[in-house]
Amino acid sequence: MEIIIAENSGFCFGVKRSVDLAEKALESKKNKYTLGPLIHNPQLVADFEKKGLKVIDHEQALKIKDSLIVIRAHGEDKSFKDKLIANGNELYDATCPVLNSIYKKIETKEKEGYQVIIVGDKKHPEIIAMESFINNGIVISDETEAKNIKNYEKLYVVSQTTNRFEFFVNIANKLEENNDSVVIENTICNATKLRQESAKKLAASVDCMIVVGGFNSSNTNKLYQVASLYCKNVLRIETVKDLPLQKLSKFKK
């Protein structure tokens, strides 16, 4: 059997940065926490917990004082971070630099009079954080919702960083059909784009494709979707224990 690893794979810059900050947090003598799972990788999160970096939710976080809290790569609600600081906590902000750039863009465009449209999953922490930086953003997740956005004079459209490019473009095109001045900003992360392109290229040339990542990861889910468009046999796993070895034995590549 020939085994090929995708040209672009593994942690992106933003995730690696958050892991490095978490490692640094372990050196502190304070009580240490991450606000939600550091990244969508249960095995890595469990390893950090064993070392003393406890995962807490928002309700628990408000009760914590004089501690060290790591803000994960997905970002966090702007006002919520202020509350944590007001309680005497030190923050290690691992928000992805790509997201920080998007926050500035949407803040600027809203001040210029644009209605900001965010294409993404309303419940995803990245989108929840993004919304907090503007006053009246609209989040849409499919073409049907896009069709209902009509007659705006100025629209500014951004994307969740992990969206498939074709998915974002289709929705953006629908918005252009029913509105006057539509500025489309492709904010899909370049690392995401490269990994999706690699998945597409590889899936088209193999008998079976294996996508490795957290079952709760948006990135992993999108890679699985991309691979499934170009390969009939796509497996999604978290660890080696999930590999169906007997099934794999029938494939050549």
Q: How many DSSP-defined strands?
A: 10
The name of the CATH architecture of the largest domain is 3-Layer(aba) Sandwich
Order of strands, widest sheet: 2-1-3-4
CATH fold assignment of the largest domain: Cobalt-precorrin-4 Transmethylase, domain 1
The dominant shape is: flat
Instruction: Please write the string of helix (H) and strand (E) elements.
Output: HEHEHEHEHEHEHEHEHEHEH
Beta percentage is 15-25%
Which structural class should the secondary elements be placed in? alpha/beta
Q: Can you walk through the features of this model?
A:
This protein is an alpha/beta fold. The chain contains eleven helices and ten strands. The mean pLDDT is 94.
How is this structure best summarized?
The protein has 253 residues and is α/β, with parallel strands linked by helices. The protein folds into 3 domains: 13-95, Rossmann fold, CATH 3.40.50.11270; 98-184, 4-hydroxy-3-methylbut-2-enyl diphosphate reductase, catalytic domain (Cobalt-precorrin-4 Transmethylase, domain 1, 3-Layer(aba) Sandwich), CATH 3.40.1010.20; 190-248, Cobalt-precorrin-4 Transmethylase, domain 1 (3-Layer(aba) Sandwich). The chain is 42% helix and 16% strand.
